Structure formats: structure tokens, C-alpha cells
């Protein structure tokens, strides 16, 4: 499973807008972004490993 860079760019833009509009959500958004990135890295790693 690979996720295209445009999808990650859209996620980053949405999170950026949310931080500007709701600064109190910064901690949650940063945490969610890191979790999503980590899951995507693991998925990519395991996909490459099984090939």
C-alpha cells in the first residue's frame, strides 16, 4: 500500500488550516499527523519486505 504525495499534501494543508482556525487543536493534529505518517511508513516497509 503506497500513498501518493498529493494525498499527503492535502492532509498537511487541511491540518494546517485547522491549526490556523483552531490553535488549541495543535497538539491533537500534530499527534494524528505523526501517527498517520508512522502507519504509512510501516505499511510501505512491510509491502517492500514481502516482495
User: What percent of residues adopt helix (DSSP H or I)?
Assistant: over 70%
User: What share of residues are in beta strands?
Assistant: under 5%
What average pLDDT do the residues reach?
Answer: 85
Low-confidence runs: none
Structural class: mainly alpha
Question: What count of structural domains?
Answer: 1
Query: In DSSP terms, counting alpha (H) and pi (I) runs of 4 or more, how many helices?
Result: 2
Query: What's the helix-strand series?
Result: HH
Beginning-to-end CA distance, first to last residue: 12 Å
Explain what this protein looks like in three dimensions.
With 51 residues, the chain is an all-alpha fold. It has one domain (11-50). It contains 2 helices and no strands. It has helices at 5-21, 26-50. Helix 1 (5-21) runs antiparallel to helix 2. The two termini are 12 Å apart. The model has no long low-confidence stretch (mean pLDDT 85).
